[in-house]
Each structure stands twice: as C-alpha cells, then as structure tokens.
Write a structure and sequence with these properties.
The protein has 402 residues and is an alpha/beta fold. Helices cover 27% and strands 10% of the residues. A hairpin with a 5-residue loop joins strand 1 and strand 2. Helix 4 crosses helix 7. The chain binds a DNA duplex (21 and 21 nucleotides) through helix 3 and helix 6.
Length: 402
DNA sequence: AACCCCTTCAACCGCATTCAC
DNA sequence: GGTGAATGCGGTTGAAGGGGT
C-alpha cells in the first residue's frame, strides 16, 4: 500500500497567494515547522492550498533567510561560472548563493544575466554555454609570477557559504553526465585529513580542501601504473592567492576526472589539470631524475570547453598557433573524462583510440609558492615502458598542503 | 486613454527520484 | 520487491506592470 492521497485538487485554491495566506503559512511553519509532511500541512494550517504549492511558496518566498533584491557582481560571477560548468542545474547553483532560490536564479539568468553577459545573439543553450566558456577563458590572467588568477571564479574570500556537500551532489546527480561527482570519488579526494572526522567534504572554495589524502593517492597511483607507460608526470595548478596560503580559486564542483593514457609507447606526456568549462593547463614532462624533458610544454595554455552538436565535449585552445592541443571524449566514457595525448615534437594532438577507459581523479591543487611553484607541485614517477625492473614509485609528501 | 510590446517573476506542470507501506 | 504517494527539480506559463506610440 502506498501513502494516503495527497490533496483534493478540485478544492484547492490556485494562483497568486494573498497576504492573508502568506501570513497563515508563515505563522504556521514558524510555530510548528513543516512536520516533514507538506501534503498534510495546508489542512493543519487551515489553508485551501495544495501542499506542493505551500512548499514552493515557503521555500521561494516566505522563509526568513530569503534574500530579496538585486544580485551582486560576485553573485553574477558565481552564477556564470557555474552555469558554464554545469549548465542549468539551478538547485546546485543556488546552493552556492545563500539566500537565493533556484527559482530566483533561474529567472534572473533567463531574463537578465544571459543577455547582460552575452548580448542578444543567443540561439540556444549550447551556444550560451560555449560563449560563457570563452568569457571565462578570457577572464584567466597571469600575474607577474606567471600564476593563474581566475577572475571569473574569484571566490577568494569565500563569501558564499555552500549548503550542499559534495556527497549530496554526487548522490543527487549520480546518473547525470556529470556523475564523476559521485560521492564515492569526490569526498575522498577532497577530504581534509586534518579536519574533523566528518565523512563529507563541504563544497566550499577554501584552502582547506587542498590537503592530500595519501591513501587514496596510493590506490590511484597503483591503478594508473596498470595503464600508463608515462615516464613521469607532473601535475600542477598554479594560482597566486598566497594571502590565503596556497588556496586555489577552483571550485571543486568543477573538477574533472582526467583519463591519462599513452597509447604510443613513447615518452608522451599527459600532465593535466582541468575543470569543466574553462581551464588552464600546463604540461611538463620529467624523467626519473627529475630532469625536464625536451618535449615538455613549457607554458600555460588557456583552454575552454564546449559541447559539440553530437554532445561531445570538445575544447579549444585560445592560442592554437602555439600548440595544437586537444582532447576527446570517446562515446563510452563519461562526458567529463578527458584524454590528453602528446607526440614528441612539442605539439599535442589526438592520436589513436584510447586503450583504456579508466578514469583518474587528478589532483586539483595549487602550488604554494609563486617563486618556486614546483616546490609543492604534485608529481609521481611511473615506470618506463619495457623496464619491468623499475619499481613503481610514487613521490609525494604526506600531509603536504598545496 | 487605448493599445501593443516587452520584461519580470510567481506559480504551475511534468517528470524523475525517493520513500513509506 | 512492488506500488504509489511525496518530494525535488527544471522548464514553462501567464498575470502584472512599465514603457512607447
């Protein structure tokens, strides 16, 4: 047997709420709470409304922490960044903006923000997101230390207090194309071992997420060994927010698991750091002696991604004349898995079909020191192809805060 | 004043998921 | 495990209001 019937739809009032109805609902909820049952609430409160309507009215308008009025520049920025990354998932975006409702943000986006940012030549959602990604990529700048300054995310002071955890995100959307946010993956990587014993990592944009969970990396590392013949990989994401002690501006919700693959049996490199939407990437290759190899890509590239007509995620490099860099997403992969290949002449290109579909979470972390960015970069050495005597060796320092 | 067009945003709708039985 | 109500979400609608002619 199921539950009792919801409500008598023939006898409920519809349309705009009167001030009297608002007062009744507000008074009732503040005094008694929802009781975990919105369907029964209108009857108890003496309202001729559907429970669903009551819930909507309370959540979107009456509850006390609702922020009415115009959106700030910072809120605009967060909305744009998240929209370019995850699309129209308003509830998640709203979770980043305390006091704002998903309905609010959705309306604001559709009526104002989209036009304000992108002009009136918008044909469809896909174009919108692509343009936004370009905007975001254009917002990436280098400071004098050659570190990234993300102007578009710019949550350095973290005024947003997210109310949704990554675990919740993963659970809510485990079947979405973005299911790399699954709880089983994300919190482990982003967990701060030095913090409380909470099993969940808050979706916050704070430096505290940047602590390595070595157990996970060891496991990750061993998996990687099975598939890669890379000689050495260095991953780093440099950012300049030294004032907050090595914080990254990146929002964890935008992190992308990356597939590292080397189908060419050469010393190709796939060194990467990615977030959906726009991202900056620097690829460098080192041998076991930590000597930088000649075919490293010694400069930053600003890339941005977009969804192609056949729903494939593609990327573009802003300065394609310098580097032919690209990634593809095979059809049997999640959309947010990335493949990075390179040949050995300092250009990167898509080669053969991948030989593995394993995905790896990539350290999302930033270097602590602008003067010596390598000092806190994450790196590990992989055995050279054909040299089975070379013991796999991960190199990382326990407890290092990036 | 009347009409039209556009913008805004609260509310609704349909669907997918969760949950109680 | 099956069923159906409850809940949550995103897309859409339509009333209200403002501005222009």
């Amino acid at each position: 047997m199921g539950r009792a019937p919801c409500c008598d739809k023939a006898n409920v009032k519809r349309g705009p709420w009167s001030p009297e109805e608002d007062a009744i609902l507000k008074h009732f909820v503040e005094k008694h709470g929802t009781g975990g049952n919105w369907i029964a609430l209108p009857h108890k409160a003496g309202l001729r409304r559907c429970g669903k309507s009551c819930r909507l009215r309370w959540l979107n308008y009456l509850r006390p922490d609702i922020k009415h009025g115009g959106f700030s520049e910072e809120e605009d920025s967060i909305i744009c960044s998240l929209y370019s990354s995850i699309g129209s998932r308003w509830s998640i975006i709203a979770a980043q903006l305390p006091g704002r409702t998903d309905n609010d943000i959705k309306n604001y986006w559709n009526t104002k923000l989209k036009k304000k940012l992108l002009g009136k030549d918008i044909k469809d959602d896909q174009q919108t997101r692509r343009l936004l990604a370009k905007e975001a990529a254009a917002g990436m700048r280098f400071n004098s230390s050659n570190n990234i300054v993300s102007e578009t995310m710019s949550p350095s002071n973290n005024t947003a207090s997210p109310s949704v955890s990554l675990t919740e995100l993963g659970q809510q959307h485990k079947n979405s194309p973005y299911n790399a946010l699954e709880a089983s993956n994300v919190p482990v990587l982003l967990q701060n071992p030095s913090s409380s014993a909470s099993s969940e990592s808050s979706l916050s944009i704070t430096p505290t997420i940047n602590v390595r969970n070595t157990d996970h990396y060891e496991k990750d590392f061993s998996q990687m060994l099975e598939y890669s013949s890379l000689t050495s990989i260095l991953m780093r994401a440099l950012e300049s927010n030294k004032s907050s002690n090595c914080s990254t501006h990146m929002n964890p919700s935008q992190l992308t698991p990356c597939l590292i693959n080397n189908p060419h049996e050469s010393h190709d490199v796939a060194a990467l750091y990615a977030q959906r939407g726009s991202f900056n990437i620097k690829a460098e290759t080192f041998d076991q002696n930590d000597t930088q190899l000649a075919y490293s890509i010694p400069y930053w590239e600003t890339c941005h991604s977009y969804q192609s007509d056949n729903n494939m995620w593609m990327n573009e490099v802003d300065n394609a004349a310098d580097t032919d860099f690209s990634y593809s997403l095979p059809g049997n992969h999640h959309m947010n898995e990335l493949l990075f290949y390179s040949n050995t002449n300092n250009s990167m290109q898509i080669k053969d079909e991948p030989t593995t579909s394993e995905a790896y979470w990539v350290p999302q972390l930033a270097a602590a020191s602008a003067s010596d960015p390598k000092s806190s970069a994450y790196s590990y050495i992989l055995p050279t192809e054909g040299n089975s005597n070379t013991a796999p060796q991960g190199i990382f320092q326990e407890g290092v805060i990036y």
